Amino acid sequence: MIDPLIRNLQADIALLQLYIAQRQKTGFHDMERMVEALTIFIFRALRMGELKNLNQIKANFPAIDLADNQKMIAVQVTTNASPAKINKTIKAFEKKNELGVSLKDKYSALYIFGFCKTSKHSVPSYCKLIDTSYLIGELCDKADEDMIQDILDAIRRHQDYTSLHPWDDKDSLEIILDLINRNAIKHRMICEGSLSDMVIGFKEINEVIGKGTIQRKQRSKSIADFKDQNMVIFLRGVTDDLSHIQAIINKSRVSNDDFVYISHEDMARIDQLKIKIANDSSKIAKLNNIKMEINVINL
Known about the structure:
This protein is of the alpha/beta class. The chain has helices at 2-25, 32-45, 54-57, 83-94, 103-106, 132-142, 145-158, 169-180, 183-186, 195-210, 229-251, 264-287, and strands at residues 52-53, 66-68, 73-81, 109-118, 127-130, 213-214, 217-218. It folds into 2 domains: 2-156, no CATH class; 168-287, no CATH class. The longest helix has 24 residues, at 2-25.
């Protein structure tokens, strides 16, 4: 499920870059602080460093905006890392104070991060020019879904772009299908270990379809944001089938207690509904060239 999450992240970053560029064209240069805050989240998510905002410690801190004094890394954040900006940053980073000490003496590495654009430019060995594609590459190399999700959440905490630039239907569908392709649906009732775990799995599927979230974290588009009507029909069908399963479980509760007795007939009916969800999922995946086939199995 890494690929669709990465594409969603790229879409959010691209829109944010466009938004910043448009603000700057109209004379507003108020986005630097937001990008600094995002950079702190991004470096933390990638485990590159626990950055602190030096401008909060001292206004207009020279040369750098963020730093991790434990890992000895410094970061200059800008929307456009032009050659002039790069040279100015390096000059200030190497400038010695009245005691003959420079920031270069304190920090072993300097990152110059151009959020919208980073020019190719010759820099000292301690300096690294990075842009958002570098960070995306790091995420792909680590292949850590939680890292990607943390950065997605960070971007969306600063601005909700869903209404401006909905994520691709196919990518969101793939994320939902990946959630369906788990034990709650795949295991027949005779194999199901924990009924409560199965119900939690159903709730997560309903949540991601209805709200686009899992445990309140944005993972995909909600059903209301899908444009493809075949996908909408499929998603509605899944929620209907899950409602039928939940109704069977609810009627099987003993004396309004947590104890549940499900008859063989009802277990067979639940299995039929699971098989229907699995088959419908496989069909919609094939229709949209998603390599995924879901089967209900016996262990």
